[in-house]
Amino acid sequence: MKRFYNLEVHYKGQNYFGWQKQKDFKTIQGTLETTLKDLVGSDSIRTMGSSRTDTGVHSLANVCFVQIPCEFTPQQLKEKLNQLLPDEIHIERCERTYSHFKVIYFAKSKQYIYLFKNLPEDIESNYFTNIPEKLNIEKMKEATKSFIGVHDFTNFSYKPSKNAEKVREIFKCEIVESQDYIKGEDREDCYALVIEGSGFLKQMVRIIMGTLFNIGHGKVEIEDIEVSYDSSVFHKTGFITPGAGLYLNHIDFIRDPFKGHKVQE
In the listed set 67, 88, 105, which residue is the last one of a domain according to the structure? Predict the structure, then answer.
């Protein structure tokens, strides 16, 4: 017997080395798989996440495909996992699916949010980044427009694979003041970079955020962004900002992962 489910997984990533399971490192996927094995009493489980978030990054939207060798109703599986998982990981939704649901390839767009403050003091937080030096927020807002559209983001990614597709389309990119997307943990008065696209390369959002910080400090000009789209030229405009401020906020799918699926006996 094999049963298949899609889980919407929310997590606080500060104590984990990202989503993807790794030998000798605590990750979200690794913790979820260990919990599933303990729950079903078998190693015959399989998981696949729609987004491989990095170390320290949070999620309000990651969808995980799960295969297990026994039967639970979606509500039972959700409740039992939430009883067993650490407090930082929570299953928000659970529904049956079919064996070949592709959580990576069926994702048509993803939205990330990066939270930051600009206060003249040293602030440590697992949930936002503070930049103590004064930023030109209006110039940063203007610069966000340069990321919208179809571009080669080679220079906005970390060690991209030589054969990987580097072209992505950004549908939305803006900085919001006094954001209300994410509440609690002193986040209500943060600025938020809201960016939505067809997909993202490794650490792409964090490098875009680093570029905007550099523009806000006058270290980089808005015109430099256009120069960086020429992948034949090594031209880095930003640095990799801390993972603490980054949230996977929403994923749109071409097929609804929570539509439900009838069990075939």
Answer: 105
Q: How many CA atoms lie within 13 A of 91 on its CB side?
A: 26
* Residue 54 bears catalytic tag: yes
Q: Which of 38, 43, 54, 180 is catalytic?
A: 54
200 shares a domain with 77: no
Co-location of 138 and 213 in the same domain: yes
What are the percentages of helix, strand and coil residues in the chain, rounded to 5?
25, 30, 50
Q: The CATH number of the domain where 214 resides is what?
A: 3.30.70.660
**Cα–chain center distance at 233:** 28
Ramachandran angles phi, psi of 201, nearest 5°: -80, 175
- DSSP notation for 46-97: EEEES----TT-EEEEEEEEEEESS---HHHHHHHHHHHS-TTEEEEEEEE-
- The pLDDT tens digits of the residues spanning 206-254 come to 999 999 999 999 999 999 999 999 887 788 899 999 999 999 999 999 9
Number of structural domains the chain divides into: 2
Question: What residue numbers bound the domain in which 14 lies?
Answer: 3-105
pTM to 2 decimal places:
0.94
Q: Is 191 annotated as a binding residue?
A: no
